Target: Phosphate acyltransferase
Amino acid sequence: MEFKTIAFDVMGSDNGLIPAVDAAIKLLGEQKRLKIIFVGDEKEIRSCLHKKKYNHDQVEIFNTTEVIDMKGDIMDIRRKKDSSMVKALELVRDNKADAVTTGGATAPFIAGCHFILGKIKGIERPGFMPVIPTIIKDKVTLLLDVGANLECDPEDIEKFAIMATAYSKSVRGVDSPKVALLNIGEEESKGFDMHKKAYKLLKGNKDLNFIGNIEPRYLTSGIADIIVSDGYSGNVALKSIEGIGKMLLTEIKSAITKTLWRKMAALRLKKAFKEVSVKFDYKNHAGAILLGAKKIAFKSHGSSDKKSFYATLRMTYEAIENDVLNKMTKALKL
Amino acid sequence: MEFKTIAFDVMGSDNGLIPAVDAAIKLLGEQKRLKIIFVGDEKEIRSCLHKKKYNHDQVEIFNTTEVIDMKGDIMDIRRKKDSSMVKALELVRDNKADAVTTGGATAPFIAGCHFILGKIKGIERPGFMPVIPTIIKDKVTLLLDVGANLECDPEDIEKFAIMATAYSKSVRGVDSPKVALLNIGEEESKGFDMHKKAYKLLKGNKDLNFIGNIEPRYLTSGIADIIVSDGYSGNVALKSIEGIGKMLLTEIKSAITKTLWRKMAALRLKKAFKEVSVKFDYKNHAGAILLGAKKIAFKSHGSSDKKSFYATLRMTYEAIENDVLNKMTKALKL
Model:
């Protein structure tokens, strides 16, 4: 049987190896055609795998001696040749794996994708694309770029839209994904020159289902399947909603458990709160693909737990299974 | 008795005159030294005031025949000479009033402040400064600019910080207001050149209590008293948190009232939800001052209800009472 293989950098994230390895074992149990190469300290990996049940054919270990930690910078990609992040990227570059997943530091990972994997022909600036939950049941929105770049030019934005459209069609099964441009107003005349030019390009591209500008307040409305943005604004928007969401839920939790009387009533609403929190749980959406990298490259949140890693690994697997890279390359017509 | 006078443009907002006039009457009852000049269609204003109790010495009506509606653009300031917005601004320019408040369209209002009121000496780009609630009880954060400008240069940002510091000290009574710079990371090296230069200016200014960069996720953490930003990013951040906040509360409401059983439990938590929603009710924070305009100029949200208008009018009154303009001008040392 031919495996789909993920090179999984299990070092360098905030919570150690255990949640990473546990998440991988869970997914291996579900996807029999998946193989995972655990890249990192072999001894530590073996101790995590010890006594766990899994099909040994589906697992490899690639030992490395260095770690790029969360404080790591871009230069670490050059300095730490035997780090788990560098080696995982090299496994993909050398076609020993179909995709790479890491929970490690963002900046070195982007640099590593750039220097080790390279970019799809015609792409100058790959963009980070997380999946964000919306108020519409089972509907998500793809948002990019959220910070792989600061500035993007209108052509980058158009290419983000083309790649994300191919992704949305093949991985998420959306027929004609609606694309919107993040901007401070709905009118075509809003924003910087970059926005106005990007608007024109998107509108003029017959392969795209462009629905116009979208204001940040509608990010999670489910109006669009894809929201394209420069990296700076996308990052500001994403971090703003993450922050306020977390804060509001914390506040509500503290208010409804302040007295015993309230606690008792809150218990009866447990299921209701669960429904809301499942819908917006960022742990189910902790992964982002670096769209435009020459290979499939996923980053999971630095503070990922088992649930987060599982979600990111599953997304990685789905991207391989659905042959996203080829579909994006074709869509780019370059 | 010498009155503090607000020229109140009561036309052009989404909800008509009634909430505007009602809010004004409420505040007039509380502040005996306040006079309000209602600017707009006299007949409509009279009908709103009819049978209401208020001290007639505190009220004037200035009749106008035109309205700049929510779709109004910048040119309307020149075209509609007898609009309530233009006339209200002129009353302040001609020292017939100490401040102006409107719920009308944003773009014409900014243009009107620019052309009719002018700017404080040394200020090139006035900035919109709303007050945002934080998780810390009774603590708010001043955020500017949230969209009066797209781009701002580092010098604008420094002046925002100086003016907002003077405002925070005099109106909010904060001793040494903590100033932070909105950025995508905490390190000094993050963001665009503009951010790096602004960081240096803020750090080097001994009159400011600069605490460094702040990420959008901590906007409502209460860490800073003042957050300075370029207008574009500030707008994206503000609209993102407004959108997600509203959405989350809607979701929770719908989840806890889905069944009769849940509704009954939710009733017992009514007070708890009230506590949270009061804390984050944007209606209490619907007003923003255009900091840097030559006179005190407040904009209330276009969809303001009575509560929103009341909050904005109260902020306007406090700004007059505390002589903010002179304090800001002094602080600028220009």
